[in-house]
C-alpha cells in the first residue's frame, strides 16, 4: 500500500498521513471508498485553487495535483489487485 505524508497550507496547514486516513487493510471496499472520497476532495480543492489563483502552475495547485496523482495511483493499484 502506498502511503505519503504531506503538508498543504491550503488545508489549514495541517500535516496529514495517507496511512492514517484509511480503514484497516482487511476491508478493501471501505479502503477503496475512502480513497474515492479523498480523491474527490482533493480534485475539488485543486479546482478551487485554480480558480482562485488562475494558474495551473502555482505552488499550491501543483502540490494538490501531485498528491492527487499519488492517490489516483494508489486507487488504481488497489483495483488491479482486486481483479487478479
Structural features:
disordered N terminus, 2 strands, elongated, mainly alpha, 7% strand, 2 helices, 84 residues
What does this molecule look like?
This protein has 84 residues and is mainly alpha-helical. The protein has 2 helices and 2 strands. Strand 1 and strand 2 (15-17) form a beta hairpin. Helix 1 (28-53) runs antiparallel to helix 2.
- Could you state the order of secondary-structure elements as H and E? EEHH
* Beta-strand content bin: 5-15%
Number of extended strands: 2
Oligomeric state, counting identical vs distinct chains: single chain
Q: Work out the helicity level.
A: 55-70%
Radius of gyration: 14 Å
User: Which structural class matches the secondary elements?
Assistant: mainly alpha
Main sheet characteristics: 2 strands, antiparallel
The outline comes out as elongated
Please report the number of helical segments. Answer: 2
Strand order of the largest sheet: 1-2
Average of per-residue pLDDT values: 75
Low-pLDDT stretches are 1-23
Could you give a short description of this structure?
61% of the residues lie in helices and 7% in strands. The chain is mainly alpha-helical.
What are the SSEs and their pairings?
Elements (H helix, E strand, L loop, with lengths): L4 E3 L7 E3 L10 H26 L5 H25 L1
Helix pairs in contact: 1-2
Amino acid at each position: 500500500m502506498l502511503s505519503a505524508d504531506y503538508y498543504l497550507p491550503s488545508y489549514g496547514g495541517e500535516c496529514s498521513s495517507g496511512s492514517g486516513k484509511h480503514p484497516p487493510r482487511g476491508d478493501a471496499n471501505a479502503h477503496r471508498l475512502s480513497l474515492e472520497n479523498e480523491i474527490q476532495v482533493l480534485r475539488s480543492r485543486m479546482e478551487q485553487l485554480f480558480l482562485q489563483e488562475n494558474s495551473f502552475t502555482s505552488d499550491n495547485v501543483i502540490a494538490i495535483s501531485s498528491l492527487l496523482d499519488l492517490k489516483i495511483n494508489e486507487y488504481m493499484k488497489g483495483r488491479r489487485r482486486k481483479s487478479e
